Amino acid sequence: MREVDFTLSAGPTAASARTLAALGSPITYHYDPEFLDAFRRTERKVASIFRTESSVVMMQGEAVLGLEAAARGLVRPGDKVLNLVSGVFGKGMGMWLTDFGADLHEIEVPYDDVIDPGDVERFLESNPDTTMVAVVHCETPSGTATDVASIGRIAAARGVLTLVDCVSSVGGMAFEVDEWGLDVCVLGPQKCLGGPPGMSLMSVSERAWEVMEKNPQAPRGSFLSLLDWKRTWFGEGRFPFTPSVVDVHGVESVCDQILEEGVDASIARHAAAASACRAGVAAMGLRIWPRSEAIAANCVTSIAVPDGLDHDRIRSHARERYGVMLSGGQGAGNLVRIGHMGPTANGLHPVVGLLALGRSLLDMGAHVDVGAGVEAALASIAARSGAS
User: Fold this and answer.
1) Spatial contact of 182 and 51, defined as CB atoms under 8 Å apart
2) Helix-helix angle 311-322:349-363, to 10 degrees
3) Angle, to 10 degrees, between the axis of helix 63-74 and the axis of helix 206-213?
4) Pairwise CA distance, residues 101 & 221, whole Å
5) CA distances from 28 to 39, 60, 62, 195 (A)
6) Which secondary-structure segment (H or E) carries 326?
7) CB 239 within 8 A of CB 233
8) Is residue 343 over pLDDT 90?
9) Residue 97: which of 75, 78, 120 has the closest Cα?
């Protein structure tokens, strides 16, 4: 099997040389004063990226750990919970919530669409006993982005908690924890931050802490316990378990890089990469998976596979023939994804992704205009560069 030259997946994504160097830092004792300082510094930097004054919890384990920990901590048996489903990860959250005893209600749309905030508002007006709304900001398999800003404000105005899966969006799309009134948000550093996949970065509001503390079902004395973090780390300055020193150094490095660039500048960079890619997709004669460009995410472009072809075969071909790793739809549909995350949301990376996809489709007999796609993507990049 050949080596990959370009990882243009939807995460984990390629990391910068600076990030890789940080991940190669010496492994120290986790109670060494220098590491304690680094851990606290990193918490503050994550809070800056989240744009929040709330607590930041950095749990050891890929972001699915943080999502489960939050859901288990917030939900009591019988709680009326509204789950918003516009894709694979929203559907999975509903399964968890049911398992944890929630009285589950869902608003569901096809996986090429997003939730209308007006529907959320109408549900909450008709169901004032709702305790929580769960929502996915970017459904990464579908490449769609939900209006969490509006949904967060709607829920907050009614005193309803929000649990937000922002695993793939923060750093690449606008996200304002405090301004949008969000309660628990879970970020994965391996996405738009371009960091290691081994941590869950979370913001937790005071309201959320109060709910967890009153919940007898919330995990305690458990790897999944947020309350253990509150009691031991925030209360006593000791960890509930040994954190990965290496991962923390990697997370601090990517936080430094995005803060030095500026969060707004990073968001604009991701938007430019996505715009160039979408322009190339259209010119090539393909279509993006989301039903409209208005709801397309800027951290990944999901592209519908032409009839008669299979996304797994296309991705395997692109990797083996052209050395480019793309992502599939993970159950969202017959689609291929080109990631724009961290270092890959820059320069000619979108063009590389389009070339690998276009040539693979040609090799399999599809009718696509690779040249037109490349020209359109380059024109978009040039226009953005000229504007800046």
Assistant:
1) no
2) 110
3) 60
4) 20
5) 12, 16, 22, 20
6) none
7) yes
8) yes
9) 75
Q: Is residue 222 packed enough to be buried (19+ CB in 10 Å), middle (13-18) or exposed (0-12)?
A: middle
Q: Does 350 have pLDDT greater than 80? A: yes
DSSP string, 7-20: E-SSSS----HHHH
Q: Rg (Cα) of the chain, in Å, rounded?
A: 21
Q: How far is CA 287 from the centre of its chain?
A: 23
Looking at the whole model, is its pTM more than 0.85?
yes
Domains of the chain with CATH codes: 6-12+262-387 (3.90.1150.10), 17-260 (3.40.640.10)
Length of the chain: 388
Joined tokens for residue 30: 């986790």
| Contacts of residue 158, Cβ cutoff 8 Å, sequence gap at least 6 | 124, 128, 130
- Cβ-count burial 30-66 (b if 16+ within 10 Å, e if not): beeeebeebbeebbebbbebbbbebbbbbbbbbbbbb
